[in-house]
Specification:
By secondary structure, this protein is α+β, with helices and mostly antiparallel strands. It is built from six helices and twelve strands. The longest helix has 20 residues. The radius of gyration is 18 Å and the shape is globular.
């Protein structure tokens, strides 16, 4: 469900309180217009480390999303699978989880579902991952573009979509530029697995056999 409103940001406090009392299988997205950068930062401070709410800011638009149970399972399994690949092939990585990245200069901020620096730790991740189960929210690619994230992956409707930042714009590609040897189709086949444990074991075995 997506709700767009234009009213005082104090509405968000009510949304948080209601969300904390509710255990829903459905995602909920609230978009508030005409939110200043100062209000955005104040809201992040008030929000603290609540892991069940994700916030995106794009030039005055504020999106608050409460992820569903399915969303959480998919993002966690995708992260575990990818990290298994890193370890198997000796790729040094830094897992930054859902860290908030923001820039006051370009008036944008976002919390990826998963993100990684590859090779060395950096202020901006090399790879951001988004699980998209509900349409109608802020275009996160616009946020990632100005933040300068080299690659963004979207898991959407059972498909893995990969976007590479080239000459300042995202281009959809069929293979990761950061991880050119990773079989994306193989990875995608396990993201919505019913049994994450068995999925991880099978994925690890297949990538071992591919060497």
């Amino acid at each position: 469900m997506v709700l767009t409103i234009s009213q005082d940001i104090s509405y968000l406090e009510q949304f948080i309180k209601l969300h904390e009392l509710r255990n829903t299988v459905l995602e909920q997205i609230v978009i508030i217009n005409q939110v200043s950068w100062e209000q955005y930062e104040a809201f992040l401070e008030k929000l603290g480390d609540r892991p069940r709410i994700s916030v995106t800011y794009l030039e005055g638009m504020l999106e608050i999303m409460s992820p569903s149970h399915r969303h959480k399972l998919s993002k966690k399994l995708m992260g575990i699978l990818l990290e298994a690949y890193f370890l198997e092939f000796g790729i040094r990585f830094y897992a930054l989880g859902s860290t908030t990245f923001r820039s006051e200069l370009c008036k944008k901020g976002i919390e990826p579902d998963q993100c990684y620096c590859i090779g060395t730790d950096k202020e901006i991740p090399d790879l951001a991952i988004e699980i998209v189960l509900t349409s109608g929210g802020i275009n996160s690619l616009k946020v990632y573009q100005d933040l300068g994230v080299p690659e963004v992956w979207f898991w959407q409707k059972g498909s893995l979509l990969v976007f590479s930042l080239q000459n300042g714009e995202y281009i959809q590609v069929t293979q990761s530029q950061l991880l050119p040897d990773l079989d994306l189709n193989l990875l995608a086949s396990y993201i919505d697995a019913e049994d994450p444990f068995d999925a991880l074991l099978e994925f690890r075995q297949k990538i071992k056999n591919s060497q």
